[in-house]
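Ligand-bound model needed. manganese (II) ion.
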Amino acid sequence: MPTYGAHAFVWIGDWNSETGRTAIESAARAGVDLLEIPLLRPDRFDAPLTKQQLVDNGLRAVCSLVLPEHAHMPARPQEAVDFLKIAVDKVAELGSDFLSGVLFANLGTMSGLPPTQQERDTCARALREIVTYARERGITIGLEPVNRYETYMYNTVKDVLGLIDAIDMDDVYVHADTYHMNIEEAGFQQAIEAAGPRLGYIHLSESDRGVPGQGNVHWDDLFAGLAAINYRGPLVLESFAAINPDLAAATRMWRMPPYTSDELARKGLEFLRGKAAQYDLQ
Ligand code: MN
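Prediction:
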């Protein structure tokens, strides 16, 4: 049976010791195996407390982040590396083995131009240092392409496959996201098949960031692709039920969604479990 996960922002708008407990308890109640914890401010993250709360609730965790403005990797690679090393240390302290997300850019920082070769070389070099640092701590890295309105650096699965080639190391995977794919890819199945064994993680999110199955994502094409590559990674619900300034800055979510967190989790996971069964995902 596939591993099911959910992003903490299904239940909360930002992560601190109190809201973190809410997210962990809610995820356990929703019946997922895995909680994705946002490390937007890794220096303030209480890893030992969170680790204990996860154990108490029988959950595993992975971590994700986007770079802050002062650490936009193409322009400030040293700041980005410093920031990411703190994050890797926290992932290790948490006892997790995966750090993913937009590890190459700040969302919303635009140059007004396409990415230059120099910017891409800078990212490959900085990420090689991070993949090495993470590997020494037993942690695998994922890289998530996001749509053109959020970054100019890597928008498609193919872009990130090129970045992974440039990094030229094992222990680094594509982290796909159906919300971004719906904007940037010519098709779901072909993009998933292009990633093949390099696909390590996936965010399942509707075209409006709402409940999977209630929007315009071509779910059958997606699951046909996942079945074709024999995908064994986690299936992670990432939609949002709260508005907060960090999230709005990154995702441009301005309207309160018409569902509660628990409705989102229940209906979304029910739909995803049905599709995974239909396509016989293992
Ligand atoms: Mn995502």
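Residues 4-278 form a domain with the TIM Barrel fold (CATH 3.20.20.150).
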